[in-house]
Q: What sequence folds into this?
């Protein structure tokens, strides 16, 4: 019985609220007397519309019955009907954008991703970034609660209570600015606010009467009552971008052109109200009172008969209230568990911060150790450079001495024969002198090139090694077109380093492969990269003469050759040049071979540590 009494009270309240809405709506729209039909726009207004062919409007997706999207995603409600009517009257097309909730709508509007809002109340905060058209609908605000307060509440009476409001709705903006001392519980939508008020999770919920009564009836909530009214009205107009005053002017012109009948049809389709109350005569009232007295007499008799049923119903209601209290206690327990979880998370975060600081200190220590290691590495490099310099000095003094001895010896013999006037072997001696001179020139040029590598500053950039290898192979084929060489150059091989120096590495290795396969009828040369071990390892492989691996340690020493000039020409500086360039790039170079089975030279690059 108590539940049915509250339901009847809610129905009366809903009727009262809707009648109030109609009165306010009629008061707000009573001044308009424009006739229906198309609106005549000025040339300036038409030019502005032509310059803005795309106009986007984002409605509140769940503001029934003012505006919302139905289950098929169709824009509906009183505001939607106004928008469609304005499109016809003004001859414009407005694109509807479907967003998830009102917060997303406001964020998109502030970023100018949408241009219009379908139904929005004018507030001081919004006025800083938004223009408002004349109102479409005007509705009073209400205060709803499941509690008894003993008197009608006003906004000023809400201090000390927990008040639910929808995020970024008018009640939220108004109470936050005008009554900062009121404790607000901001919810995402109307349904959540009504549910919290119904379950006692908040004391009151502030909302306009049209939305609140619509959702109450739709959700079947029967324990909420109107316990007061707000001191402000909900005046829904169309929200317009701040930088589009011409758009507001055009929309206001369209609204002014709506007739009384059109306005009533647009609003009445969504906000259904009953006819004004009938005023009975005194005779009718007396008859009704007599009938009521008779009914009360019969009811008094029936009360005794139904007392047991009422007690049972009250017991069931108390059990429901007990179950609700237990549910609320469970909710409180859940919230406490969430709070404890947040405390644990914060503790874990602090522990992570301590761990991060410890790691930073360890990283600093590692950096210091790394710097010390780099100093030791640089010292080792200097010592290696000194050893190279000693080796270089020895090579110059030893290897350049041989062609000089040849030149000196043959010149002395030639001089003796010239004095004895014996010219039979003079031509051969001169030829050998010239060969020795050329060889010494080659050795001097190689030594100069080798010495310049250490002095040249690296200019590192991305280098296409495949393209360099193809170009060098093409040059060698052009120089010796009679050679039959099957060259396999891998595609997309690239590295970071000095382009000129890396070209010298590829050139020396490919020239060696070309030279030492010269006695093959069909030679095979391959260039590529192996990334299976994580670090790129570049290689040049051939099937030429090869060398004894026991002497591999001499490969990269200047002027140390594993083949005679009679077998293969050369100065013995090319591989020393390759090694020095690779070391400049922080890499390694090594080789594997067997006599008569070819050779494979490998190298790595690490310009970060170079």
A:
């Amino acid at each position: 019985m108590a539940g049915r009494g509250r339901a009847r009270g809610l129905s009366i309240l809903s009727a009262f609220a809707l009648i109030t809405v109609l009165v306010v709506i009629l008061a707000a729209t009573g001044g308009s007397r424009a006739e229906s039909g198309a609106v005549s726009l000025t040339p300036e207004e038409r030019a502005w519309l032509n310059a803005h062919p795309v106009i986007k409007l984002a409605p509140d997706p769940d503001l029934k019955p003012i505006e919302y999207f139905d289950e098929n995603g169709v824009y509906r409600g009183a505001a939607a009907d106004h928008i469609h009517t304005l499109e016809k009257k003004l001859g414009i097309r407005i694109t509807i954008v479907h967003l998830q909730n009102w917060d997303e709508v406001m964020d998109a509007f502030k970023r100018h991703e949408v241009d219009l809002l379908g139904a929005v109340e004018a507030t001081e905060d919004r006025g800083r970034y938004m223009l408002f058209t004349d109102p479409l609908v005007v509705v009073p605000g209400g205060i709803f609660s499941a509690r008894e307060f003993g008197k009608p509440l006003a906004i000023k009476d809400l201090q000390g209570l927990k008040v639910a409001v929808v995020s970024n709705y008018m009640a939220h903006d108004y109470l936050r600015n005008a009554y900062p001392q009121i404790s607000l519980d901001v919810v995402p939508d109307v349904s959540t606010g009504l549910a919290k008020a119904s379950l006692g999770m908040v004391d009151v919920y502030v909302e306009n009467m049209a939305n609140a009564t619509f959702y109450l009836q739709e959700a079947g909530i029967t324990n909420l009552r109107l316990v007061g009214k707000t001191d402000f009205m909900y005046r829904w107009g169309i929200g317009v971008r701040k930088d589009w005053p011409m758009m507001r002017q055009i929309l206001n012109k369209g609204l002014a052109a709506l007739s009384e009948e059109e306005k009533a049809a647009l609003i009445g389709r969504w906000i259904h109200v009953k006819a004004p109350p009938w005023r009975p005569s005194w005779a009718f009232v007396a008859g009704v009172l007599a009938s009521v007295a008779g009914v009360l007499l019969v009811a008094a008799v029936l009360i005794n008969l139904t007392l047991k049923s009422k007690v049972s119903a009250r017991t069931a209601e108390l059990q429901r209230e007990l179950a609700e209290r237990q549910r609320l206690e469970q909710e409180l327990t859940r919230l406490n568990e969430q709070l404890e979880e947040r405390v644990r998370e914060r503790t874990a975060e602090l522990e992570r911060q301590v761990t991060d600081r410890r790691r930073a200190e360890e990283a600093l220590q590692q950096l210091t150790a790394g710097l010390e290691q780099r100093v030791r590495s640089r010292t080792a490099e200097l010592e290696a450079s000194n050893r190279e310099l000693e080796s270089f000095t020895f090579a110059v003094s030893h290897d350049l001495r041989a062609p000089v001895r040849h030149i000196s010896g043959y010149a002395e013999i030639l001089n003796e024969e010239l004095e004895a006037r014996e010219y039979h072997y003079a031509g051969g001696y001169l030829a050998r002198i010239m060969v020795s001179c050329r060889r010494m020139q080659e050795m001097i040029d190689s030594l100069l090139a080798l010495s310049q590598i250490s002095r040249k500053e690296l200019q590192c950039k991305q280098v296409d090694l495949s393209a360099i290898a193809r170009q060098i192979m093409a040059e060698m084929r052009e120089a010796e077109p009679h050679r039959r060489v099957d060259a396999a150059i891998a595609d997309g091989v690239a590295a970071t380093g000095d382009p000129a120096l890396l070209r010298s590495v590829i050139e020396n290795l490919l020239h060696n492969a070309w030279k030492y396969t010269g006695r093959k009828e069909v030679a095979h040369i391959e260039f590529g990269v192996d990334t299976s071990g994580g670090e790129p390892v570049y290689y040049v492989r051939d099937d030429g003469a090869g060398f004894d691996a026991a002497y591999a340690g001499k490969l990269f020493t200047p002027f140390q050759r594993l083949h005679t000039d009679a077998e293969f020409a050369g100065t013995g500086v090319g591989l020393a040049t390759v090694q020095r360039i690779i070391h400049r790039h922080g890499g390694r170079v090594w080789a594997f071979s067997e006599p008569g089975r070819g050779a494979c030279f490998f190298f790595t690059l690490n310009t970060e540590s170079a």
